[in-house]
Here is the input.
Amino acid sequence: MKILVPLKRVADPDNANKVKIPAGGATIDTTGLEWKPNPFDEYALEAALRLTENGASPKARQGEVVVVSFGPKDMEPTLRSALATGADRAIRVDAKDDQLDGALVARALKALIEKEKPDYVLMGKQAVDGDSNQVGQMLAQLLGWPQATFAATIQEEAGALLVGREVDGGVLTLRVKGPAIVTVDLRIVAPTSVFSKSTARTFKYNDGVRFAPLPAIMAAKKKPLAEVKLSELTSDTALRVEYVKFEPPPGRQAGVKVKDVGDLVHRLKNDAKVL
Amino acid sequence: MKIDDPMPLEALSAIEPLLTDEERMIRDSVRRFVRERYLPRAPRLYEEEEFPQDLIPEIAAMGLLGASLEGYGCAGMGAVAYGLALQELEYGDSGLRSFVSVQGSLSMYPIHRYGSEEQKQRFLPKMARGEYIGCFGLTEPDAGSDPGAMKTYARRDGDHWVLNGSKMWITNAPFAHLAVVWAKTMEGDTVGGPESIRGFVVERGTPGFETPTIHGKMSLRASTTGEIVLDNARVPDANVLPGVRGLGGPLSCLNQARFGIAFSVLGAARACYDASLAYTRNRVAFGRPIAGKQLVQEQLVEMASEIAKGEILALHLGRLKEQNRLSPQQVSLAKRNNVGWSLKIARMARALLGGNGILLDYPAIRHAMNLESVYTYEGTHEVHTLILGRALTGIDAFLTDLVLATRGVRAVRSFILGSCASTRARPSA
Here is the structure.
């Protein structure tokens, strides 16, 4: 099974307060930001690795996992890290972060996927910076492929994937035959969420994303990392989303202590104006 | 009162840009491993005096065992990458790091450096996979800082050696599959002297080889420590390390481990600093967070300064080691400085946390207690002072004229006593 995993780097969500916006709000200042892989994409990579191995012997890959990302050269450590975790090869589509939007990424991915011909595309349901939650769905539409979004479980069965989606009041299970797009939710990395056809159903993974072993980190620099120009994938590089202005969320105001219930009601009516 | 975000500790030493992407990745991977797999269990393991043997396969799968060695299933990492990995382990617990140091620097390293090809093939791949755990027998009940005074002897008997003696304070010994034991031999005119010392790989199951556990430690409780008792233990010639004779053998192993410790101990210090900063920024006394008080800031600044300086030193020495330019004196400088300061930092953290500082819910007391051992093992703080003192003054403070004069006599005497050691009454075994 060949799986393609699109992976986005995002500003470290644990240090989001480091994001600075210069006066005027035309752009975001990215200098000094610490970059991390988008957590949902890391989960997608973990799911892809689980689908291409026997959980009991995770070193032997059954199939191929290709990671792809869009960004400048300095994002390559993010891809190397994915290679160290277990992906077989990586592709970087050379682009500047502010020259991309979801629709453009989907158009470029479509061209890349037509060339790579994966059986499945596994990706995070959304990136935690823009929280747009759209590329997977757009991609399915552009390719005319089936899609299963917000996957919480995936089981390989009879040449298809059984995808469990948590919905109000229960779990909706879809059977998707490749080629297809699957976007994953956070519970996909629970110990018994993903089973390839060769992993015993009694097997339990460690909770979360696997660790990159040190020898694999050192071997990752020898794994192939190809560079593709954005213009080679799509001639239409126009953005559909126009960013009008960036502004940081207002800082939190200091709280006040209320004297009694009367004071509270008064303040809710007159200061907070919520009553 | 205005409270800004704290400046990250890393910004002080600013070594981040001096690391390679690979080194950063190795550090981050071990960091996550320790935080997810070890730290949640750390207080209980410490309290229960337990090393988590169930974690050994995962530690091995991470490639942490013998990681700085080349070939035989080892990762072959550079000195800085290895140091950073050890530092993250010690952020978890000095006992966890000790396990890895003893397996890699003290057990695998001597086999790798001084062993025959057959010995390397036989032991190293299994040790890298964590299937074979090793330990290192040098220190004895009556010979610590002065290993040349050891009383463990090996007597040749056909194609075997017969070992008698006992070793003390041996990390991993109670569950180890093999021990690299250093013993004096009866060969040539060096009989009984430090020059006659050789390394023996003693395997579990050898009759006369016992490893009783030392209980009641108030330090390194999450690491298993034992003795090695050799009572006419027969070791085949094939298990003698052919590549070294004399004290230089074990001391070269210690030099490896000491470099690792100089790097790694800052992990314990960082854990203590992180806990102190978080606690003092939240804890309010007399109307403001105690981190906003001058006495507390002085302590935090002292801690952060020494960690930053220690990191710069460790990185510098790591780069020297990668170029084979690191001297034993520099290793003594770094072990002495970084362990000495980390212990002080842990004690300061314990005090800053007030009453909470004595609880295992916070890492300070655990690290402070652990570092008492680290202060003493791998060359005591004092021994490193004297190594540097000897180098700087040109005068040896270890050996008095009296010791020099009697050394020959004592060597013969201790040889005779050593062969009787196995019959000595043992209080705990």
